[in-house]
Structures are given as C-alpha cells and as structure tokens.
Amino acid sequence: MQLITLALSPFGRKAHIVALEKGLDITITAPTVPTALFQDPLVVAKNPLAKVPTLLLDDGTAIYDSPVICAYLDSLRQGPSLVPDGADRFGVLTRVALADGMMDAAVAARQESIRPGGERSQACIDKQRDLNLRAVAAAEADLASFGSGARLDAIALAVALTYLDIRHPGIAWRDRAPKLAAWHAEMEQRPSFVATRPAS
Ligand SMILES: N[C@@H](CCC(=O)N[C@@H](CS)C(=O)NCC(=O)O)C(=O)O
C-alpha cells in the first residue's frame, strides 16, 4: 500500500498515524508537484479531486478521502480496532467529524491567508478561526468522551490541534483549553505521533 501525502497535511498525518497504530506496512510517497496537486500526474490519475491523502492499494485501486482511507485501514483485520462497533460508534464518528472539520477550517484559513493582499478575505479567515475556537471549546468540555490513545476520535483531534499550532499559532488555543493542552501533549508522545510529526 502506498499513501500519497504531504508531511504538513493533517488529513494525511491522521491516515499515516492510523496505519502505524494498526501495524500496517505502508509506503509514504510525496506528490511530485506538491504546490499544485491538480498538475501532479499520479495524484490526478488516481484521484480526480486531486487531493492528498490518496491511498493506492497494491493492485492500483485508489481510496480517498481521509475518512474513507481510515475506515479502510481500520477494516483490515490487523491491530486494534480504532472505531468501536458498539453503542458509542456514532459518538466516536461524530467526534472524528468535529476534528476533521477543524482541519478543513484550518486548511481553508491557511489558503486564504496566503492569497495576494487584494484578494484575501479577512472575514473568511475570521470565520474559520471562530469555527476552530468553538470546536476547541466543545472538545475541552467533552474531553472525557474522546478518551486517549489509539482511537480515531482522539487521533484526529490531536492531529487537528497540532496543525493549528503549526499554521495558526496566533489562535493560542491552549489559553482557553488547559485540559485539552495537557491531553494533547500526552497524545503527541505516542510513537505514531512522534514518527509523523511534521518539521514546522
Ligand atoms: N476531505 C479531504 C480533505 C483533503 C485536503 O483538503 N487535502 C489538502 C491538503 S491538506 C489538499 O489536497 N489540497 C489540495 C487542493 O485542494 O487543491 C480528506 O479528508 O482527505
């Protein structure tokens, strides 16, 4: 299996961590045109959305986007199950969606912030920032539900928070969420997190 991704992509890091937590044999490949994925021949040939991460199976089949990649990897009967089958399944998946939404907002704000001055919308950046602050408050209030360790909601939330640190340090989410800050520091100590931590 080959995961096409960029080191700084939070979606890609989440999928890579899932593979490591499952003990799966996976090769990480960087796109050849990282700044314009729609021009990357491999990414475009395999994923018309031209996004990373894209997972390539050994027979060439492509799987995207990251929630589907994570579900696929978790379905392989190796390693611990990262999403429970029982009553809490949809609670866990909803918390994963919260974390994925944080990543979406943080990536959108980043893309907006690097547009030329005249084209940049501060209102758009502020909207994504407010979304992330609401999500941080919700996670701080509901931290006990996220658990810790190798469960997909915990993995996704910790990855989203690290991405905020890298791309939006000004949000200073720790000031508003001390319990989350301590929890996040512990999650980042897991070997799968250390192995995938992007150089900022
Ligand atoms: N919903 C997708 C989002 C993936 C995504 O937005 N990836 C970014 C990199 S972090 C990307 O490929 N952007 C390229 C583009 O939008 O042109 C997922 O979960 O995989």
Give me a quick take on this structure.
By secondary structure, the chain is mainly alpha-helical. It has helices at residues 10-22, 41-46, 66-75, 89-113, 122-141, 143-146, 152-167, 178-187, 191-196; strands spanning 2-4, 27-29, 54-56, 62-63.
Strand content: 5-15%
Q: The biggest beta sheet, please?
A: 4 strands, mixed
- Count of domains: 2
CATH topology of the largest domain: Glutathione S-transferase Yfyf (Class Pi), Chain A, domain 2
Number of strands: 4
Low-confidence stretches: none
Per CATH, the class of the largest domain reads Mainly Alpha
The average pLDDT score comes to 95
Give the CA-based shape.
Answer: globular
The rounded Rg comes to: 17 Å
- Strands ordered across the widest β-sheet: 2-1-3-4
Which molecules are bound in this entry? glutathione
Helix coverage percent: 55-70%
List the secondary-structure elements in sequence, H or E.
EHEHEEHHHHHHH
Number of helices: 9
List keywords for this structure.
Glutaredoxin, 9 helices, 4-stranded mixed beta sheet, globular, binds glutathione, 200 residues, Glutathione S-transferase Yfyf (Class Pi), Chain A, domain 2, mainly alpha, 2 domains
Question: What do these coordinates show?
Answer:
- By secondary structure, the protein is mainly alpha-helical.
- It folds into two domains: 2-75, Glutaredoxin; 89-191, Glutathione S-transferase Yfyf (Class Pi), Chain A, domain 2.
- Helix content is 55%, strand content 6%.
- It is built from nine helices and four strands; from the N terminus they run βαβαββααααααα.
- The protein has a four-stranded mixed beta sheet with strand order 2-1-3-4.
- α1 packs parallel to α3 (66-75) and α1 runs antiparallel to α7.
- The chain is globular and about 45 Å long.
- It starts with a strand and ends with a helix.
- Bound molecules: glutathione.
- Residues 9, 11, 37, 50-53, 65-67, 107 line the site of glutathione (GSH).
